[in-house]
Amino acid sequence: MDQPAASSLFDLLARQWRRPAAVAAVAFNADRAAAFAGADGSLAIVPLADPESPESCVHVNAETGRATIRPRRKAARAPVVREGLDDGAAPPLAAHRRSSFVVGCRDGRLLSVTPRGQVTPFAVRLGQRVTAIDHHAATGRTACAAGAGVAVFAGDDTAAAPLRLEHELPLLALAFSPDGRQLAAAHAQGLSIWWLGDTPSPRRDLPFAG
To answer: What's the rounded Cα separation, in Å, for the pair 19 and 165?
Structure first.
């Protein structure tokens, strides 16, 4: 299959959007949307559904049977942008529920943002800057790190009091295990893991340099 010499495969099959600030984080939800957190505190949400599929760019000559790829003709849909969700800093970002996203702010706020840009704050506000977020789709849990502690929200009820997990060090990143029963947190001295099942268990600390 021949391609026009002036076009790369990226030009033909991919889409791109220009943002005024560097993109610091990206998340994909289950309803085929992606969110990009900017270093200026903004959030840009784009649909993953392609208005011009790759198949529609393929042209087959009726006489020779030769297939060629033509450049895109339809422009990508403009992103939905929410400015100033955080004050001049890239907000931590994760998918939330099925179709939304959750971002954390320097003042401890947690915001749920729909693909249309509608913002709903969590009823609970953390006492320090939110530094990391992760969400587990199957269990509905959302974990948010602020300072040396983690708040774990169960299910979709963002008004309910979260489970509080304490640490001695500031936490830098969070990740649920694939089954959602364990939560790992990265910090300056290594990794700590909590078991979130029905039976409490001691925190596991895995020390390593850096």
So the answer is: 36
